[in-house]
Structure formats: C-alpha cells, structure tokens
Amino acid sequence: MEFQPQLILIYFAPIFFFCVALEWWLLHRRAGERPKHVQDSANYQFIDTFSNACLAGMHEIGDALAAIGVIALYEWLFGFRLFDISASVWSFLLLVLLQDFCYYWFHRASHRIRWMWASHVVHHSSERLNFSTAFRQSFTYPISGMWVFWLPLVIIGFEPMQVVAAVMLSLAYQFFIHTQWVNKLGWAEKIFNTPSHHRVHHARNPEYIDRNYAGTFIIWDKLFGTFVEERDDLPCAYGITKQVHSHNPFFLTLHEWRDMFTDAFSGDKTPWQRFKHFWAPPEWQPDSEEAPSTPDVKAESGL
Ligand SMILES: [Zn+2]
Ligand SMILES: [Zn+2]
C-alpha cells in the first residue's frame, strides 16, 4: 500500500498500544517498584481508558473526513506559493522546525481562545495522566480551525503532503510524553518537550496552568515566556479548573460548546459581550472586565 502521510498515526498505533500495555503492566503488576514521583493519577481505570479510546476513534473519523477538504484547500493554496522549495533532508528539517513553531501558536490559541478551547478541553478533562490520555482528543478540531495554523507553511512553498507529514510526526512524538513513569531526562529537558514538561501542561495548579504549550521543542515556551519547570515539591494536580465528572465521550466532546453558546445567548449582555464569549479566554465573563478593582491597586501601591 502506498505511504500516506495523513495515516502516520495509524501506522504508529501498534507502538502506541505496546506502550500502553507496558505502562499498565509497570503500574499495576510492578506497583512495588513504582518510582516515588509517580502518583495514583497515573493508574489505569477501565472507564477512563475506554472513554479515551472512544474519543480517539471519533477524532480519527472526524479528521479523516476533514482531511479531504483541508488537503484540497492546501493543494489549491500551494498554487499561489511564494517560493519553490526543492525537497531535501534539509528542507524537511526546516519544515519540522517551522511546523513546531506553528504548533506552539495553535496550542497556545487553543487554551486562550474559547472557540478553540471548546475542542481542546477534551484533551485536558481527565484527572488522570498516562499514555492513554494522549488518545483523548476531540472530533471538533476542524470546526475550531486547527488547520488554519499551518496555512502559512503551504503559502511559503512547502509541499502540502510534507506539511501534513510534519504535523503527524509531531503528534506521534507527543504520544510518548504522556506518562508519569519517566522522570526528568537530563540535557534533553533543555531542548525537547519531555514527559516532565508536559505533565506541567496537564496540571491545573495555579503555578502550572496554561504553561508549556510546546509540541516537540520546548524552545518556543522559553522564547515566548510560557515555560515553567516541574517542581519536586509541587505535584501536578491533573484536569481542568471546572472538573467534568463524566466519561461519556459525547458529553466530553460537547460540554464546552454548550457552555460557550449558553454564555453567549443568556443573561443581560450587550451584543459585543455576547460575541466576545467566542474569542475571549475561556474564563472570561462580562463582570471580569470590571477588574482591576481599586482595593487591589491600593494594596499593591501600599496606600
Ligand atoms: Zn493543551
Ligand atoms: Zn497532552
């Protein structure tokens, strides 16, 4: 069968399943040898893992359908490319780096723009973190506009299927950082996104939340001020600030969309405030605009 870049995650599936089985065996059959930093939130719970697997299946179906339109759009835009880039190992390495830059901004926007958070919240709503959490994705990413973030690469002149391959390889890499078993990895922590950095990303502790948006390379967080190191004295508390106590894949996929539209169409608000619910950060509410409050300003200035 011909190699198809959009199927890279499917090609990797046997390795992913092997890692899940190995991690389950280590956690549940070798519990006595468990390193101190591994919390109970690493444990596999049938309903959580089953829900993650269902979400992965739904996501793959959604992506397969969206890929038809997105690849056609990329191919059409490629006709208007700015440069002719000849395919080589070097051009692909440059593409991997630029792709990762685009991924960083996609991921940061996914946390700070509610229209995008409505999809991405699915990945964060489990209170557990293990390899199976990587499967926990939403089928609504194409509606949130994930595909927009890689358009510049096609317009620059990178061949669309190579762009798709670079995105898929990054997503495949990111499977391996969803584990608590692996502790810090020495020099690699400085350059790569690692399990330690990504544990911080999945944590809801105020010190960790909305940090470490990296895909493959952690350099972007360091450059743009969103990097935080995992601390031994501050274990990660996983999940989201408004915990969702459900394992129903459809509810997990749709609850934030429901809440966003409810916020936009309910209450006594101006049209601008209603509209703002779609693009403001997820926690934004009209009354949050009344900040900064005078007492805080006084307290800070010592008055
Ligand atoms: Zn995230
Ligand atoms: Zn993750």
Short description:
By secondary structure, the chain is mainly α.
Features:
disordered C terminus; 303 residues; binds zinc ion; mainly alpha
Number of strands: 0
Structural class: mainly alpha
Radius of gyration: 21 Å
Q: Tell me the number of structural domains.
A: 1
Helix content: 55-70%
Task: Give the overall form.
Answer: globular
Indicate the low-confidence ranges by residue numbers: 291-303
Give the termini separation.
73 Å
The residue-averaged pLDDT reads 92
Assembly level? single chain
Largest sheet: none
Written as H for each helix and E for each strand, in order along the chain, the element string is HHHHHHHHHHHHH
In terms of topology, how is this protein built?
Elements: H1 8-29, H2 46-78, H3 89-112, H4 114-124, H5 141-144, H6 151-156, H7 160-175, H8 188-191, H9 195-202, H10 219-223, H11 249-265, H12 271-279, H13 294-301
Helix pairs in contact: 1-7, 3-4, 3-7, 4-11, 11-12
The structure holds zinc ion (2 copies).
One zinc ion binds at residues 123, 178, 198, 202.
Please describe what this structure looks like:
The chain has 303 residues and is mainly α. It has one domain. Helix 1 packs parallel to helix 7 and helix 3 packs across helix 4. The longest helix has 33 residues. Bound molecules: zinc ion (2 copies).
